[in-house]
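Exam revision sheet. Question 4 asks you to relate a sequence to its structure. Input first:
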Amino acid sequence: MTDMINATINGVPVAVAPGTTILDAARKVHVKIPTLCKHPDLEATGACGICIVKVKNTGKMLRSCCTPLDEGMDILTETPEIVDVRRGVLELTLSRHPNECLTCLRNQNCELQALAADFGMAASELPNIVPDLPLDTSTRSIVLDPRKCILCGRCITVCQQHQNVWALSFLNRGFKTRIAAAGDIPLADSPCVRCGQCSAHCPTGAIVEYDETVVVWNKLQDPETYCVVQIAPAVRVAVGEAFGFPIGANLTGKIYASLRRMGFKAVFDTNFGADLTIMEEASEFKNRLLEGTGALPLITSCCPGWVDFMEKFHGDMIDHFSSCKSPHEMVGALSKTYYAEKMGVDPARIFVVSVMPCTAKKSEIIRSKEMSSSGYQDVDVSLTTREFARMIKQSGIDFVTIPEEQPDHMLGAYTGAGTIFGATGGVMEAALRTAHYYVTGHDAPRVDFEMTRGLEGVKEGKLNVAGKEIRVAVAHGLANVEQVIEKVRAAREAGEELPYHFIEVMACAGGCVGGGGQPYGATNELRTKRAAGLYQEDQAGLWRCSHHNPYIKELYAEFLGEIGGHKAHDLLHTGYQVLPEYKR
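Answer key, structure tokens:
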């Protein structure tokens, strides 16, 4: 057994494993040390210096987030001297930060603002030296405001190390240091895949979602516009965090009710689109597996950040990609065709809003001509969960007490398989449930494929379907994708048997529950609780397999015709192209 490190923090004995930082050791004995640049997902950099502590017997000041606790250390964290040093660090940080809290999207949800309040920073004696730098709104998914950057480096770490995209970097040195797209070009011209993990990890308003709530409010007020809305699986277990609900609380019925109060004419559910995606994608997998109609492994295509990443970095994998659109795009196309026809509404008047956990969905809705398969842009605006929470608050709706309602079932009824799309491995599990049915003609004895669940970066598994071994992989967080793709590429180039038949990829850690547009503060503990809320709904659902959804069956019988047929292909499928990493 490894010897423990024994030390003292503020006179309290502590014993921790070797390598434990002073910060983590302090938390173990309920000592709070303020942090700003540190995030639980990321390696500590010690960039801000706010977590400074003192070693009593040597007098040394150390940054607790990145310094391991040593044997016999006597640490002080609360002396007037330390508080004064922290105040000085905070004052220097604020001297380079604009006083725009009232108009900032992070107002009352900003780590810098919270620390300033804790330290009573009502005024600063230092001159204000906020750099005069322009906003970068070029992606129309995320907004980069380098004036509000505190140079913590979180966004760079997550972009480079966790996502392997390398779109962001530090430019210049000293007082001129700033955050920008690599090469100092517009972010839209960089390798950025719009995943929004930079915004999810930013402690201030330096990187936020591209806000379109005003556009939606204006459309809701227009009597000539017929506004419809859909909500993604992961939204229902995250939006409650903005209103004090426990993490992972499933608030689907309250969301439906709130959207109707806002004035939407119809409330749909992207879970319906997830069920529809499975009908098409599982059929595509069966045809590739049994009839050789396309390359294996089949790779899922529901995540627009992953689609962008694949087109820029792994264009040789395009033949392996499922041609299915993402679920919200399918619902958008059907809103302006099937629903419009059934309800007698001019599709030109229909305005489709998607509430998504994702910033990349904002660019997906205009990514190619197939995103206008209805004859109009299929989804007009995609809002993040954060934007939706703000709209609820702006409307004055009492979200805590509002009675639950049902969706418009024509494009709103769904199965448990549709719900679990929001968690990493959920798309794979849902697809396997229906693929088993397509291959064998009957449901699997057990529809819970737990090998796809959990937060391990790459999950692999095997199952036997009609005497055939099916090998699958699930990867989340784009850096984890590399090892899966390289494994496939190496086998293909060597002429060996491929390691997998089916692969699911999600750009964000944890899948959509950890999406770039979700409420701030995502950690693995939080992602696990959000995912648990989805799996609970799956277990409790009336139907658990997409092919059991009676409204999906009705859709094919009345409108789409054959699964994977001509009409379904025109409305529900897309294509891909190799893109350059940098636009020139």
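Marking note for examiners. The longest helix spans residues 270-291.
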